[in-house]
């Protein structure tokens, strides 16, 4: 039996990547750029730690080959695609310009690039928030879910799972309620349409998995079996998480290279945390950690939808997610101790 490698070995590649990012930042803009990259790395890691837990809960059911594919090719997409190419494509679509023109704006006219990206902020958060809301609700309404952390809330949600398409109904209600916070009728319509596309994306991935052999009885993640559909699901999920970090990064700097370096380093930390959680079976040991992560997903979805007309600091978003995960971890430790005490008492009798 192979020995489990020390926890810090999972962060070796990440540490090297971060050192390279810091060195590159120094050449780009000196010590101020280095400080910005370090802060963006911390910001992205804090915002996406719940993403690492959710990824681990999915990858735990995949074989070693598909894990490697996601953690190599998938991370290339996450690091360079979602943090660098994705915002550029959004600007190109919003402005009706070519991606090359969008890159030119990002490099030579960062103010205009930031303005165009901000102009479609309500549509992007509607798409991402709706997708994340579907992820959150689907986990808690699963009828086979028997483990509950916040039982007073989670048990009724599980019973609601008996209703047909309750996830979509609940998510659409949240989307419509959030849309009324927007003053402009045009922006409100764009917000709702983008949210519907987020819902369609979730249903498409779920349907694709059913098409290739998934079923509703496969466990708490029936739509994320290993394969192309599961790979696609995790990439869309990562995109939904990452845009919050992109928006926060633009508030600090409009330099595309600095943003890419900082957010990519943070994404590498998320990858390392995911590997650590999967290898050590942390989600099995700490029974409520997964619940805390999904509550954090729900909190992020609400913040994205409701915060479309409010300036909610990204640091606060990360703090809420981290607090939920820490509370779930503490509850897991206490539950494990209670179980151990009962087992000891039963053995003595």
Explained architecture:
With 349 residues, the chain is mainly α. It has one domain (11-335). 79% of the residues lie in helices and 0% in strands. It has 13 helices and no strands. Helix 5 crosses helix 9, helix 7 (166-179) runs antiparallel to helix 8 (185-211) and helix 8 runs antiparallel to helix 9. The protein is globular.
Kindly report how far apart the N and C termini lie. 36 Å
Spans of 5+ residues with little confidence (pLDDT < 50)? Answer: 213-223
Principal-axes shape call: globular
- Biggest sheet features: none
Number of strands: 0
Assign a percent range to the helix content. over 70%
Query: Number of folding domains?
Result: 1
Radius of gyration: 21 Å
Please count the helical segments.
Answer: 13
Structural class: mainly alpha
| Beta-strand proportion | under 5%
Order of helices and strands: HHHHHHHHHHHHH
pLDDT averaged over residues = 81
Furnish the topology, listing elements before pairings.
Elements: H1 12-59, H2 64-95, H3 99-108, H4 110-119, H5 121-140, H6 151-160, H7 166-179, H8 185-211, H9 228-252, H10 256-279, H11 282-285, H12 289-306, H13 314-348
Helix pairs in contact: 1-9, 1-10, 1-12, 1-13, 2-3, 2-4, 2-9, 2-10, 3-4, 5-7, 5-8, 5-9, 5-12, 7-8, 8-9, 12-13
Structure keywords:
13 helices, 349 residues, 0% strand, mainly alpha
Summarize the structure.
This protein is an all-alpha fold. It has helices at residues 12-59, 64-95, 99-108, 110-119, 121-140, 151-160, 166-179, 185-211, 228-252, 256-279, 282-285, 289-306, 314-348.
């Amino acid at each position: 039996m192979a020995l489990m490698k020390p926890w810090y070995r999972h962060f070796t590649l990440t540490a090297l990547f971060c050192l390279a990012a810091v060195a590159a930042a120094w050449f780009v803009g000196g010590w101020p750029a280095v400080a910005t990259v370090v802060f963006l790395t911390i910001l992205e890691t804090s915002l996406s730690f719940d993403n690492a837990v959710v990824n681990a809960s999915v990858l735990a059911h995949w074989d070693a080959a598909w894990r490697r594919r996601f953690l190599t090719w998938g991370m290339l997409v996450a690091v360079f695609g979602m943090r660098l190419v994705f915002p550029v494509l959004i600007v190109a679509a919003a402005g009706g310009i070519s991606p090359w023109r969008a890159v030119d704006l990002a490099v030579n006219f960062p103010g205009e690039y930031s303005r165009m990206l901000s102009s479609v902020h309500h549509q992007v958060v509607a798409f991402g928030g709706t997708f994340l809301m579907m992820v959150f609700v689907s986990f808690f309404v699963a009828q086979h879910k028997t483990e509950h952390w916040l039982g007073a809330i989670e048990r009724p949600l599980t019973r609601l799972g008996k209703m047909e398409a309750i996830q979509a109904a609940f998510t659409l209600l949240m989307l419509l309620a959030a849309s009324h916070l927007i003053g402009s009728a045009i922006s409100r319509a764009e917000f709702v349409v983008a949210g519907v596309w987020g819902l369609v994306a979730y249903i498409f991935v779920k349907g694709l998995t059913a098409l290739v052999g998934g079923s509703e009885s496969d466990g708490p993640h029936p739509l994320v079996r290993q394969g192309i559909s599961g790979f696609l699901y995790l990439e869309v999920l990562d995109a939904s998480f990452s845009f919050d970090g992109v928006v926060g990064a633009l508030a600090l700097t409009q330099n595309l290279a600095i943003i890419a370096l900082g957010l990519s380093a943070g994404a590498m930390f998320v990858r390392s945390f995911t590997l650590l959680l999967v290898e050590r079976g942390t989600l099995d040991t700490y029974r409520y950690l997964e619940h805390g992560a999904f509550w954090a997903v729900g909190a992020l979805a609400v913040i994205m939808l409701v915060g479309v007309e409010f300036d909610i600091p990204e640091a606060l978003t990360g703090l809420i997610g981290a607090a939920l995960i820490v509370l779930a971890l503490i509850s897991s430790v206490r539950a494990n101790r209670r179980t151990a005490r009962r087992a000891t008492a039963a053995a003595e009798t």
